[in-house]
Design brief:
9-stranded mixed sheet, alpha+beta, single chain, 2 domains, globular, Alpha-Beta Plaits
Amino acid sequence: MARLILLNKPCGVLCQFTDEGGRPTLKDCVAIPGVYAAGRLDTDSEGLLLLTDDGALQHRIADPRHKLPKTYLVQVEGEPDDEALAALRRGVDLGDFRTRPCEVRRATEPDWLWPRNPPVRFRKSVPTSWLEIVLREGKNRQVRRMTAKVGLPTLRLLRVAIGPWSLSGLAPGEWREVELPADMPTGRRDLAKPQPAPRRPQRRTR
């Protein structure tokens, strides 16, 4: 049976299990051999990361063609106006690619939010705001680049949900194992399915 781990990745932890420079990695949080990240999360970002030991499941979660929604809470510098929000929803041109349309709304800081380590650096003269952004793709540092493009630099970024899985109940560095939905394909399930018997070659008649 494939394993699926939900981890609340802390800020500053690399999204890999080894690092020659001695920086914190996933190994410091999850001491389970044979699992690897299904998708990525920037070192300076926090929140939900899925880990599995099954290649087919990893592909299903990470591949944007399956349109698995990923929900982020984003603290930005400045106050978003309607024009900036509309631009994010339509998709913005980042030079090397244009983002797909997404869901964006104003949000408030959640009451369950933990202090970040290291703390976010604020400018006293500039207000900050929170946004909820739901993407169905995931390019490198995409959310940060999107908000910067519309004049709202990201200060703090948390991923709070991926598809049916959420961060709820997990403190930074904590993880839990969950059962897979019945309709979620895995390589191990596919191998477990009975295979059709090979067809016998037919004799040719003259």
